[in-house]
Amino acid sequence: MSRRYLIVLLLVLLFVFSGKRADAQILNIERLRMEKDTAKYFQFKTTFGLNHYNRSAGVDDPVSLFGYNLDVNAIYYPAKHAFVFVSNFDYLKINDADFLNFGFVHGRVNFLREEKVNYEVYGQYSFDNFRGLDPRLLIGGSVRLSTIKTDRLTLLVGIGGLKEWETWQHPYLEEIRQISLFKSSNYFSLRATLNDFVDVNLVNYYQVGFDRSISDFRQRFNSSTIINTKISDRFSLTNTFDLSYENRPIVPITNLIFSFRTGLSLDF
Questions:
Q1: For residue 167, which of 13, 229, 237, 264 sits 20 to 30 Å off, Cα-Cα?
Q2: How far apart, in whole angstroms, are the C-alpha atoms of residue 259 and residue 229?
Q3: Are 46 and 75 in contact (CB under 8 A)?
Q4: Which residues are registered as beta bridge partners of 64?
Q5: pTM, 2 dp
Q6: CA atoms of 174 and 194, how far apart (whole Å)
Q7: Burial class (CB in 10 A: 0-12, 13-18, 19+), 58
Q8: Do 84 and 107 meet the contact criterion of CB atoms below 8 Å apart?
Q9: What is the pLDDT of residue 56?
């Protein structure tokens, strides 16, 4: 591997691992809820990161990297309901080529959130130029059922539907493909405290809709597993595994996407 490609690889890895990235078309909003402290009535957090590097191997072999990351998240819990706003934008440019351009804006309202049976409506705008998606629009709603809720175990099931509009750029042809589908959108969320040291969070999403243009069903599946392990009063270990699968992509892209992250936390 040449020095130039090694430098580019190291810079790309630095940028990717320093920010947040959502590769799946299904936004895992339940995972966000698990990461928030619902005892607080209002939470707002915004993060902005900027990266600009020029570490060329030689005058005739320049390497320039520019990128930014922006997150704006807010959760508001009045007496009976919940309002959620989530957004993320990632951009990365290497020399004169756009390498990564991804983002989404998502809003959601959860009615009667503390009831065993509650309801939600949502809307979303997203794009992923690296995979050829720009834009994706959707509106939907669901019924949420709190089937189990104890101090050590929580199981929640969501049953609903959505309407989505997508525009895709074919990766090999100068061709734009557009699609509009009604889909069934369902999920379940499991939180389990196994003992005083280990707890597990699992969220699975499943979306399916019938596409008349191919006379078949298009299906999407997303799974997120988080295992938190307390090593001591000061140290804890978090392992996260995300997986996304699409059986019939609109254009020929990778069906299966996965990522694994592990991290060690030090608390004072």
A1: 13
A2: 19
A3: no
A4: 54
A5: 0.78
A6: 52
A7: exposed
A8: yes
A9: 66
